[in-house]
Design a protein that fits this description.
By secondary structure, this protein is mainly alpha-helical. The protein has 3 domains: 98 residues, no CATH class; 102 residues; 184 residues, Orthogonal Bundle (hpI Integrase, Chain A), CATH 1.10.443. Helix content is 48%, strand content 10%. It has 15 helices and 8 strands. The protein has a 3-stranded antiparallel β-sheet, with helices on one face. Strands 6-7-8 form a 3-stranded antiparallel β-sheet. The radius of gyration is 28 Å and the shape is elongated.
């Protein structure tokens, strides 16, 4: 007969001041502790119920995990005893960890993608798809267990990227995706936290400062003076870039999603898709001129402003995202051709995102206070910029946002 009990192992204190949560097994006067990979403080532990209290972050998920693992231990013991198989505490531990690590990374990643797509989290699903493709290529389609994701594995994966000329900032995107996937698997009880590789492998080492991607006002003027044939692809590409520049570097996706209902009088209101931040921008004459190019007599309040999306064609989030990516890619390709036509140095570096950097740099050159534009606009932490912008009256930003070319 084997006794089992969920305990807070107070004999060991972790660096965060908490104690490990374990399952204590006793058989034939021998004791073994199964570490569940989670911890808790004494104040957050309900000794009677053997659960964490509500004051613990994600307490409900953690309690579910603890009970699930305890039930697995009980099932393993009952299976041994029902089948009259001689077993030891080590046998229980071995079978438990074998079950814990049975879910493969590829399978779990694919399942996570399906769940995200079902809940219309298309962007997150796309990120996991990129990760899955990358891992399959790196592993030659050979699947792996979560226990295989070690510090050494991450180093080798990183080295493979570097050998192929992938930039460190791009590598960090994949590493963050692996970390998020692993963290989720741990919470769901499919991976063991005791050998967590990101305790020693630091993604922050890959976060090198992105090269500044701004162009001077003189080059903005060259693009402004470039007048392509009406309604051609170049015509729209030029307008997309300039509209972004004149409106605090609006992101391409946010611009594609703009409807005429986002405009009230002389102001543009929109919420950024990526962050949920709300923007309220005065429409300058240059922006109004671009908007007028797309103002049709029969347009409705709910029509898209720019000819990127069509409600009749792009009805699902997936189709919208696919369309935006396609047009964004084409726009960036054509901006390089426009840059070469008008004589901009290093034309291959021009992309739609350059408009955002250029707006910030132009403001700095004009002497606009850093507290208004935010030193980190598009460079380090965009959240800081939004915090600064919220602290000022619209009239202050409106004045700063004039005379941009």
């Amino acid at each position: 007969m084997t006794s089992r009990k969920i305990i807070l192992y107070k004999s060991k204190t972790l660096s965060n001041g908490e104690h490990p949560i374990m399952i204590r097994l006793i058989k034939d006067r021998k004791i073994k502790y199964i570490n569940l990979g989670h911890s808790c403080s004494i104040k957050q532990w309900n000794e009677k119920e053997k659960q964490v209290l509500k004051s613990k972050e994600k307490y409900d998920q953690l309690n579910h995990y603890i009970q699930t693992k305890y039930n697995e231990i009980v099932s393993i013991i009952l299976k041994f005893e029902t089948d009259k198989i001689s077993y030891s505490l080590e046998s229980i531990e071995s079978k438990f960890y074998a079950s814990l690590n049975s879910s493969t990374v590829f399978t779990y990643c694919a399942e996570s993608i399906q769940r995200l797509e079902k809940t219309n989290k298309i962007g997150s699903a796309a990120g996991l798809k990129d990760l899955l493709r990358s891992l399959k290529k790196y592993r030659n389609n050979k699947d792996l267990l979560f226990s295989d994701i070690t510090h050494s594995f991450l180093n080798r994966y990183e080295e493979d990227f570097l050998q192929r000329g992938v930039k460190e900032n791009s590598i960090s995107v994949y590493m963050r995706a692996i970390r998020a996937l692993l963290n989720k698997a741990i919470v769901e009880g499919l991976a063991d936290k005791s050998n967590y590789p990101f305790s020693t492998y630091k993604i922050s080492k890959l976060n090198t400062e992105t090269r500044k991607r701004a162009i001077p006002r003189e080059d903005i003027r060259k693009i402004y003076d470039f007048i392509p044939e009406l309604n051609t692809s170049f015509y729209h590409t030029r307008n997309f870039f300039l509209f972004s520049y004149f409106n605090i570097g609006i992101n391409f996706k946010d611009m594609a999603l703009l409807r005429w209902s986002n405009i009230t009088g002389d102001r543009l209101y929109y919420q950024r898709a990526k962050t949920g931040a709300n923007y309220d921008i005065k429409i300058q004459p240059e922006s109004r001129a671009i908007l007028d190019m797309y103002l049709k007599p029969n347009r409705t309040h709910n029509d898209y402003i720019f000819p990127i999306l069509n409600d009749e064609v792009h009805q699902s989030l997936q189709s919208k995202n696919d369309r935006i990516k396609k047009i964004s890619k084409r726009t960036n390709k054509e901006l390089k051709l426009i840059a070469a036509k008008v004589g901009i140095d290093n034309p291959k570096s021009l992309t739609h995102y350059v408009a955002r950097h250029s707006w910030a740099t132009t403001q700095k050159m004009k002497g606009t206070p850093v507290s208004i534009i935010g030193e980190s606009l598009g460079h380090q932490d965009e959240k800081t910029t939004r915090i600064y912008l919220k602290g000022f009256e619209n009239t202050v930003l409106d004045e700063a946002n004039t005379d941009l070319i």
